[in-house]
Structure of citrate lyase holo-[acyl-carrier protein] synthase:
Amino acid sequence: MILKHVFENGSEVTLEQILSNKEWRVNKQNNLMNRFPEASLISIKMNIPGAMKQSPAILAMFQRGLKTLESMYAQNKVEEVVYFDRETGPEAFIVVSQSLHDAKINGIRFEQTDSLGRIFDVDVMAAVDDGQQLSRTELGFDVRKCFVCGEDAKVCARTQQHSKTEMTAALDNIYQTFLVNQGAVIDDNADD
Ligand SMILES: [Zn+2]
C-alpha cells in the first residue's frame, strides 16, 4: 500500500532530541573533516518544519535525494558516503575531493533545481576553508525559495508566513509528485 501523506506513520521528536542531535552532527562533521582535511564535506538533511521529522515518506524522499547528490558529486573523487537513520530524521555525509567553492555550487544547484531540493538542507564545509564565505547570491544563485510559496524562504520562516496546514499540504504535494515520478499510481478515492 502506498502512503499518500508525508507525515503518515511518522514520529515526533522533542526540542531536546533536536538539540542533542545537532551536537551529534557537529561531532560527526568534525571527525570527518579531521580524517579528510583536504576534502570538502557535504552534510545532508531534510528541511521539514515542525516536530515530525521521521516517516516512511520522509525516508523515501531522502534516499532519492541522496542518490541524486551522490551522482552529482561522483564526477569527482568521493572519499566516503555515510548514512544515518536518526530519530530526528535521516542524515548523510559525503566526503568529496573537490574545492569548497565547487562543492558549494553543486549543493546549491541541487537545492535549487531538483524537484525535492527545497525540502533538503545541503551544507558544504571544509577543514581548510579558503576564507570565502560565499553566499548563494555571491555564487550567482537566487536566494533560497520557500517550498510553500516560492518566495524568499528566510522571510517566510521569520514572519511565520505559513500555517501548519499550509506547510503540510505543500509537503504532501511535493511527496505525491515524487511518488508519481517514481511511477506510483495514486488512487485519490482510496481510503487511508
Ligand atoms: Zn513562503
The chain has a mean pLDDT of 91.
